Amino acid sequence: MEYKQFLQIHQYQLANIPESLWEPLFNKLGQDLVDAGEFLELHYGDPLNEYSLHVKAEGGLKKHGNIFLIDHAWTTKPETSRAQLLDNPQLVERLTSMMDISVDSDEDQEADQGGAGEQGEGRAMNKHPDLDVDSAMVELVASQGNVSTQRAKEALQNENGDVIAALMSLTLHPDHDAQGLQNLEEAIGGQVMRDKEAKSAEKKKIDTINKIMVEMWKYSQTYEYAVVDAHGQTKKESAWYIMDEVGSALRHSDTPNSVCAPFIYIGRGTVSYSVLFPIEDIPKGGMMTRDFVPADIKDPLTRKAYLQIYEDDRDAAELIAVYESDKLEDNEVKPFDQPFTKTMTYSHSTEHSDKKLRLYTATEWVASNCKLENVELVDSEDQADILWFSQDFKDFEKLTKGQKINQFENESCVTYKHNLAALVRSAYGTVPWCPTTYNLSTELAPFVGNYLWNEEHGHRNIWICKPWNMARGLQITIQEELAPLVRLRDTGPKIAQEYIQNPVLYEGRKFDLRYIALLKSSHKDPNDPSKGCNFQLLVYKMFWIRLANQPFTLEDFDNYEKHFTVMNYGNFNLTQLLYTKFIDNFEKEHVNKKKWVDIQEDINEAIKAVFAAAVAKPKPEGLGATDEKTRGHAYEGFSIYGIDVMLRGDAEQCQPVVVEVNFSPDCTRACKYDPDFLNNILTVIDPRVGNLDKALGAFNVL
């Protein structure tokens, strides 16, 4: 590759590197020259109780005087990192050394406990019939003693877990000679020791990987890259990487003397490095430092919150005070009247006419399930009475009088997760039907304060991290440690939402409920749109149950089938359960507890409260009109939303929690279960197309 071509291909990455270093970087990349070791050296315990990177070159390093390539030891994604570590013991060993991780063996732990394992040298003296014995030992005794597992378990309990004593009690006559006993002890003792060593090694391996999974966030960096999906669409994905021993030894400073950043070299294929260069003169022996905090974080308190993950002795007071202040402010917000009418109003005559209603849509499930005789599909937006899109619509000013469209301007106020949380907090403060949620781009300080407050008060921290605007469970993880929650914000806008630790269960499994809500506006005066709109909110009576595949426990948070309920987009078993059957089974399981009709009423009220806030609050916080121009739009709007609801608490409480609101959900499955699903929606939108009373029977009108 020629130098000019290198500059052209890498111009955006080079913009943040001093021009005087471009040619040296080009030369080193061309030769794959990793020569930092000639100028720099690792220290341990001097001056920090960890690895640090120091200048060893005579005369030190000059500002912008050199640039170094840093290799990447590991590139991964959070969802695959554990599996990679399990399959790569050499990588585990390298990372353990780099991160200075130590894991005590079982023998060390026994020694720390005062030699608790010494009793195994002799016969067990005390019998414990209720002793919880290891299942592997039970199988071993049952196999060697040729007895049932129940008898083997009882023998082990009687002998306080001593395998040899248990086998003697099952197989040896008291008159057997000493040599037979010795042979048995040697054979069984050797097997026990081998099993113990294998179990100890496996436990140490898992414990080591668990520690790496916690510590990796202090070392990981990230960059974005483009991929082309199966439909030919380009999308961005994020990679996490850990630099080699040199790069990982760089320490943080608020006034750093060097810059270290990823550099993707497109030359001999595509190779990822990091580049390191000094931005100050650094003397021989001086420690190399960089700023760990992303450039987009300017606020001092937010910087402090970000740096908490690198602090062994956390200074929590200031951040906790921010959280407590916000919490007090939320509790002082007063609810308002909910502005809905149950009276269905329309700007057109409800009488049927010979003229068919014209529907334009590019939404497949709408086009294929529209069976009403009074509706015809048209190919032009201009000809349509109803417009139905799956993508965001922008040209509202082009709509004409009488047209209806399946979107509202600014409905991202409820469909974006961070906006929904902000809307509810602004309207109502803290409420039991909305989980505590933080925008990690703008509310990092109060979130970290909440996390630290929980630590101080003995509350378990379990948070679910989600992108602002993705569905189908994409990029969602459950975290207990602070570090990943803080660092995951670096790969794009995220929220941290309290994980519901006490969900109401169905047959021992976690579940959530998907409701379809229809929000509809109609002009108060069809001849004068400036007088505003009436809003109606309806929730379809049929709902969908999404079940986890495994019993719920508060552990194994990377086990998708235990903690997540969306199974129809992955390689998982999908439980199909009709809502009427669910209600019947639920009431049988939780007999003499809260009846479903009361639970449903609570769910309806929670959904109603969300959209009441959206309608009442002006843009950009809500859907409400902000001026005469937007108040006087000629068109009318409607939109359907997928509302995900969980229940928490015991079966007597069953507190609904609105988890999220989804834009333009795919309702193919709804149409399969109820062939009139779309017809009912279209009839409520415009009763000229069908029987309004029949259609309304499928909804709860809120």
Automatic annotation (TrEMBL):
Disordered, as annotated region: 103-129
Organism domain of life: Eukaryota
Q: Which GO terms describe its cellular component?
A: cytoplasm
Cite a single GO MF annotation: ligase activity
- What Pfam families does the entry give? SET_TTL, TTL
- Write the record's keywords in alphabetical order, separated by commas: Ligase
What protein name applies here?
Tubulin--tyrosine ligase-like protein 12
